[in-house]
Each structure stands twice: as structure tokens, then as C-alpha cells.
Amino acid sequence: MKFATTAIHIGQEPDELTGAVTVPLYQTSTYAQEAIGKHKGWEYARTQNPTRSKWEACLAALESGIAAYAFGSGSAAVDTVMRLLSAGDHVVMAEDMYGGTYRLASKVLSRFGIDFSYVDMRDLDNVRNAIRPTTKMIYTETPTNPMMTITDLRAVAAIASSVGALLVVDNTFATPYFQRPLELGADIVVHSATKYLGGHSDLIHGIVATNRPDLAERLQFLQNAVGAVPGPFECWLCLRSAKTLHVRMDRHAANAMAIATWLESHPAIKAIHYPGLPSHPQHALAASQMSGFGGMISIELGSLERARHVTEALRLFCLAESLGGVESLVCHPVSMTHGSVPLEQRARLGITDGLVRLSVGIEDVSDLLADLEQALA
Predict the structure, then answer these.
(1) The CATH number of 3-242 is which of 3.10.330.10, 3.40.640.10, 3.40.50.360, 1.20.58.760?
(2) CA distance 307 to 271
(3) Is 98 a catalytic residue?
(4) pLDDT class for 282, splitting at 50, 70, 90?
(5) What is the CATH code for 245-376?
């Protein structure tokens, strides 16, 4: 089946009991058992929930995986993946990534004896040179947040395989509609489903997919043992949103391309970061592993004063954290999503006081362009 059909039908089959076309919301904490040791396959809702299981089956199919596991947030999903490691293990991590992931690694996980090296993964030699005998995982985002750099997933997967390390890819920006890391050699894919998978700014959620049976078994154990699971309503909302993911992503990407092309020639823009533009230094690589370029754009305005003026002048782009909803958002990474990243690291990456990130929604693009035009004037 093609992607759109899979999104609408896998995990979304009519309810066997009633014939309901929409998967029911199983709002329960436990299940009646017929006798000691005899039940209908469901015991306790932290361990399993029918609504959650349907959503996990849907996302696994969309990512070309054999299994997926849902969590209460994207950070909880990442944290659970990191629990595959032990004290003394080493992780090579992309230096340009969501600030919350950096915070989790540097402020929390490092206290438990896990070592992290942060490298610019645009240069594969940086990845190779960071490898140690204790390296057990390579972790990256692509495109990265917020600088929109691209990791060569096939090449990094080969490096990881050669040293027996796991490759974990945050696929939040691209979604499985535009990029499927498992097909490119990754072992695990993580998402903040709060973003495009949920798509309506009405839930907090994370999910992990894998195509390896051994990892699926370990992740399932950790999901139950650690217990950072979502409620069934969030899973039900994600099932709803999966049905329109392909339609929404096409519109996000089309709007973003039109806006990026217009912004590229605007005199107020000092730099623009969008992998769909031919001028992006990694455009060819992005095109080789993505079928579309998504709805995220970062622009350099030159100063905090200018960034403040533009974000306050925008009317349709709402100044808010997060991304991936149907409505357009604007974010100032230094003061919002990336405040936990050290100043010297932000400066090296180009995350300046004048950098603004746009999450381009699915409104009429002419209205979005008009809003940007008046704000930049």
C-alpha cells in the first residue's frame, strides 16, 4: 500500500465489536480478568491499551518498522531510548539539535555515567573521529533544529554499523511522509508527535519506531518498566491526525517553499536556512534522502532588536514555542527552545539573537506572505 492508504487503514481498522469506523477510545486503567491467569490479552493500561496499540501499529507501518512505542512526550521517548545504554557507554551526538535533547543529555543523563560527544555531522570525519571503543550510539536530527542542516543518513548508518553502534534519528521535522530513516539504515526513529504527527497543537506526545526485533523487545520492556506512557486520548488524537498527515505535509511544504523563495531575495533577510532551496549547501543531499522538505524555515534578521520587532509585528504567525501545527508559528530560539544550549555553542552553530524560526502552517500562502511583508517592512 502507498503512504496515504497505509495512514488511513493500518491500525485504523473498524472496531471488531461494534463496527465503529473510528478506533474507539479505551479510557480505562485496568481490565476484568476471567480467572487467575486468564484474560483477553489486556491486563493493565500502563502495559497496554487498545487505542495506544492501534496508534503504535499505524506509526510502525508509516516508518517501515516492525514495532513502535508511544510515550507521554518527545522528551520521554528520547529518555527511554537512552535507557538502552549503561553507565560508561559513549554517544556521538549532533551538536545542532533541539535544545531539550541537549539539556537531557548534558544535565541529566551525563550524571548517570553516560558520556556524550557533540559534533558537526555535516562532516563525516567528525563522526568517525569521535568514535571510541565505548561508543554504543550515534544520535542525530535531520533536518536539525533550528539550523536546518542535513545528516547523510546512509553514510552515518554505515559508520554506526562498522563499530556496532545504534543509529538513532529524530525524524520530527521531516515526518515519515518525507523521510524514512529506517529504510536508510537507522536502527531507531524518534518523534516528538506533539509536532507534525499530532499536527493540531492540541497534544503532548512522543513515539519511537524500530525495525529490529531485539530492540523492539527491549523498548517494549522499558516502556512498561519506566512507565512514561501517554493516555489513550492522545493516542486517539494521533490516529485521527495520521489520516491527514500526507495532505497536511504537502501543504506545509508547498507554503514553505513559496515563502523561502520570497524571503531569499528580501533585503531584510541576512541569511535563510531551508533545505528545499537550491542555494542550501546540502540541498542535493536532502533531495537524495527526502521526498519533500517540510515546513520549517530559519531566518537571520541581524539583531535582537530586529527579531523582536518582526515577531511582535506578525499577525498570522503566532509567537509561540513548538511547531508543526496547522497554524503558522514564529519562534525565537535563543530565548525559547535553545536557551539551555551554552552561548559559545550557539554562536558556533549560528543560533544568534537575530535568528527566528518559522513553522509554516497550511493557511493560504498569499495571506502568510502578506503578513511577513508587513512585518519586515
Answers:
(1) 3.40.640.10
(2) 13
(3) yes
(4) very high
(5) 3.90.1150.10
- Distances in Å between the alpha carbon of 243 and those of 10, 83, 301? 10, 32, 37
- Cα–Cα distance between 351 and 331 in angstroms, integer? 12
Among 54, 83, 136, 195, the one annotated catalytic: 195
Residue 314 has pLDDT above 90, yes or no: yes
State the pLDDT at residue 349: 80
Average pLDDT of the segment spanning 335-355:
83
Inter-CA distances, 359 with 131, 248, 257, Å: 34, 13, 12
Q: Which residue out of 31, 46, 120, 240 is catalytically annotated?
A: 46
Q: Of 26, 52, 83, 98, which is the active-site residue?
A: 98
In order of 49, 164, 337, the CA distances from 122 in angstroms are 41, 21, 22
pLDDT at 359: 98
DSSP helix, strand, coil percent of the chain (3-state; round to 5): 40, 15, 45
Residue 343 has a pLDDT of 79
44 is catalytic: no
pTM score of the predicted model: 0.96
Which stretches of the chain are DSSP H helices? 3-9, 50-62, 74-82, 99-103, 124-130, 153-162, 175-178, 213-226, 232-242, 245-264, 283-289, 304-313, 343-349, 365-376
For residue 40, indicate whether it is catalytic.
Answer: no
Q: State the pLDDT at residue 373.
A: 98
**pLDDT of amino acid 270:** 97
Identified catalytic residue from 96, 170, 187, 371:
170
Sequence ranges of the domains in the chain: 3-242, 245-376
pLDDT tens figures, 202-228: 999 999 999 999 999 999 999 999 999
Catalytic (active site) residue 170: yes
Evaluate if residue 141 carries a pLDDT over 80.
yes
